[in-house]
Amino acid sequence: MPRLFTAIEIPREVGLGLSLLRGGLSGARWIDPENYHVTLRFVGDVDDATGRDIMLMLGQVRRPAFDLTLDGIDQFGGHKPRAVFAAVKASAALMELQAEQERIMQRLGLGAEGRNFKPHVTLARLRDASSRQVADYLATRGHYRSPAFHVPRFVLFSSRDSVGGGPYLVEAAYPLL
After folding, report:
1. Which among 14, 6, 20 has a CA at the least distance from the CA of 150?
2. CA gap 39, 5 in Å, rounded
3. Which of 2, 25, 137, 172 is the Cys-Cys partner for 158 at CB 3.0 to 4.6 Å?
4. Would you give the end-to-end CA distance of the chain in angstroms?
């Protein structure tokens, strides 16, 4: 089975707003707006049986729908920037949904996620961008804020691209209450 991860899709109108932030940063490989998402739990490459178990267990999630807002642009990597992202404003409903999915994956025998959950939408992956260039980019675009948007479902995505950034395929969609 291909590489799997769970995520929240970004609505088209919010994605269009994010796409206006593209450009002005050398060494950036910009993510296509149709591939914007908030990763909830990276699963990785699994066999077909494990993939089916994941799909079944995710179908048992019963959480209410909620609203999200993107609030600010930042970077991962510190002095050696590797990605630019839109941050997700703190949300208890989002954190609870992610935590439940983490528990499900661990019950299925998958290892715990090694990184703390920092909800975000990756806008670009960076190669050879200096910290100064990224700081200049963030100084002009860092105050971005999206309108609130409704999250009616989460999805199980697959990716066959080994470097990330899409294309992503929705393997299953799970409505929220």
Report:
1. 14
2. 7
3. 2
4. 29
Tell me if 47 sits within 8 A of 17, measured CB to CB: no
pLDDT tens digits, one per residue of 69-113: 999 999 999 889 999 999 999 999 999 999 999 999 999 999 998
128 band by pLDDT with thresholds 50, 70 and 90? confident
Give the residues across from 68 on adjacent strands.
149
Report the alpha-carbon distance of residue 13 to residue 55 in Å, rounded.
28
Active centre residues (catalytic): 37, 120
C-alpha 52/C-alpha 41 separation (Å) is 16
Structure tokens at 164: 């990330």
Using alpha carbons, select from 171, 173, 132 the residue that is nearest to residue 153. Answer: 173
